[in-house]
Amino acid sequence: MTQIYIYAGAAFIIGFITAFIILSFGLEKVKKKLKSTQGYLESETLKKVILQKEITQVHQMKEVGEMDYRQKLEEALLQNKILDSDILLLQKSNEETEALLKKSQPALHNLKLQLLEAQNTIARYKAQQQEQAG
What band does 27 get if pLDDT is binned at 50, 70 and 90? Predict the structure, then answer.
């Protein structure tokens, strides 16, 4: 009977040691997988941070470009206003000159008008010829 207890105790101890070894190997595999997963998560987090920084830089570059284009547009609009003003002044000056020429030398004024009309007619003929040729 004592031998049965000894064999039973030995079997129990061997079973316990075997179960401990099996569980230890399983636990090691789980630890390795956990470490691998944590490394993967860290790398993904780093990628995410890098992408966020890059997106921020691209957004800032876009804003700088837009500000530059707005500034250029404002400068162009201001230049257009100046040019419009200059054109109006030139037109007024031309009208005044024409009025003076008409008063002081009407024959010369009439010749000038005929010359302008001739130039316009030539330009119309050239345009018609280009349309017919094209």
Answer: very high
Q: Residue ranges per domain, the chain? A: 2-133
The model's pLDDT over 34-48, given as tens digits with 9 standing for 90+, comes to 999 999 999 999 999
Question: HSE of 114 in the Cβ direction (CA atoms, 13 Å)?
Answer: 6
pLDDT of residue 55: 96
At 69, which helix (H) or strand (E)?
helix 2-104
* Angle subtended at Cα 91 by Cα 78 and Cα 74, rounded to the nearest 5 degrees: 5
Tokens coding 83: 């040019």
Mean pLDDT, range 53-70, rounded to an integer: 96
Please name the residues in contact with 102: beta carbons below 8 A apart, sequence gap of 6 or more.
109
What tokens does 9 get?
């105790």
